[in-house]
Task: inverse folding
């Protein structure tokens, strides 16, 4: 464990060295340790122009003169937008050590000028005493994982509200988010394998059951003709009237055969909104997510549970 920690320290030192010098030899040394790097989704996320447009418009309209908390700063896009829009101060909260090292360099001038405070910790360790420049008035965040909840957005806000580090009277961007689904037929899930040997087909079906048990949702290309019902809302969280919902029920009316649920999410600002629905916003980096499910009959009653960042669907028997 020690040697892994010290290798990681060396890796961070090389990152610092490279940021200061830009030297190619240092970059080569970093490459040898790149397994310590940041998750690759940061690249898709930072290139997602519809996502970026949402935050640019809203932050430019809202951040002037505000004390801002950037909850989950990443490489600092929202912090940078807030500073550019005239925020009085930004608290940049981030838990990833590599990213923190980069933020220290990226915002070195703003940190020494007292415009940015870096809070290098997980949100569960944050408390009001960290707000030495006053309580934040505007909390900006983008902690939406691939199915909306998988970066634990509900749990993170529940913890911060319970401990009164944040209060629902503050302004949030996004201030509301919702999760949606529709029934869908996918040719990938539960496909009829073209195996001539029925035993091998059965074995593969078992493997498929194991896969979907371990990963209840899969990311697949979206085909509009696969949609088999109208859209339904599963969950709607308003941060200004926060209720940590854990469960919801719905009745799906099918208009054709379906074998999964297609799930997406929306989030809202004062004037703009964003959707990860590939039908309406095909270029967004949050892929389509499908939950394999036995959906037979004209209507299906479902219970959905939101637990530790995941959605679980259960068919209810009438
Ligand atoms: C989806 S990225 C968003 C980055 C940046 N805000 C942006 O919009 O470009 C979320 C970031 O929040 C950090 N993060 C997630 N949950 C966190 C938590 N509970 N406490 C602190 N940082 C967190 C992750 O490490 C990641 O860098």
Result:
């Amino acid at each position: 464990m020690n040697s892994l920690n010290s290798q990681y320290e060396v890796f961070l030192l090389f990152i610092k060295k490279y940021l200061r010098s830009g030297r190619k030899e240092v970059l080569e040394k970093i490459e040898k340790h790149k397994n310590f790097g940041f998750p690759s989704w940061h690249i898709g996320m930072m290139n997602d122009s519809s996502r970026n447009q949402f935050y640019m418009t809203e932050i430019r309209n809202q951040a002037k003169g505000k004390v801002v908390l950037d909850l989950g700063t990443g490489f600092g896009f929202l912090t940078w937008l807030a500073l550019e829009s005239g925020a009085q101060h930004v608290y940049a909260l981030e838990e990833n050590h590599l990213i923190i090292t980069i933020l220290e360099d990226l915002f070195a001038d703003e940190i020494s000028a007292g415009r940015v405070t870096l809070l290098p910790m997980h949100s569960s360790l944050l408390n009001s005493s960290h707000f030495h420049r006053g309580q934040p008035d505007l909390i900006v965040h983008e902690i939406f994982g691939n199915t909306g909840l998988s970066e634990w957005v509900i749990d993170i806000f529940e913890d911060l509200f319970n401990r009164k580090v944040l209060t629902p009277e503050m302004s949030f961007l996004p201030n509301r988010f919702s999760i949606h689904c529709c029934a869908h037929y996918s040719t990938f899930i539960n496909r009829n394998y073209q195996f001539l040997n029925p035993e091998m087909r059965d074995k593969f079906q078992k493997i498929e059951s194991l896969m979907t048990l371990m990963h209840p949702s899969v990311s697949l290309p979206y085909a509009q003709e696969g949609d088999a019902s109208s859209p339904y809302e599963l969950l709607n969280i308003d941060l200004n009237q926060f209720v940590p919902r854990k469960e919801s029920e719905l009745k799906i009316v099918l208009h054709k055969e379906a074998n999964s649920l297609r799930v997406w999410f929306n989030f809202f600002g004062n004037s703009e909104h964003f959707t990860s629905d590939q039908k309406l916003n095909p270029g967004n980096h949050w892929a389509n997510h499908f939950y394999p499910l036995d959906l037979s009959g004209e209507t299906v009653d479902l219970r959905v549970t939101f637990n530790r960042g995941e959605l679980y669907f259960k068919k209810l028997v009438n």
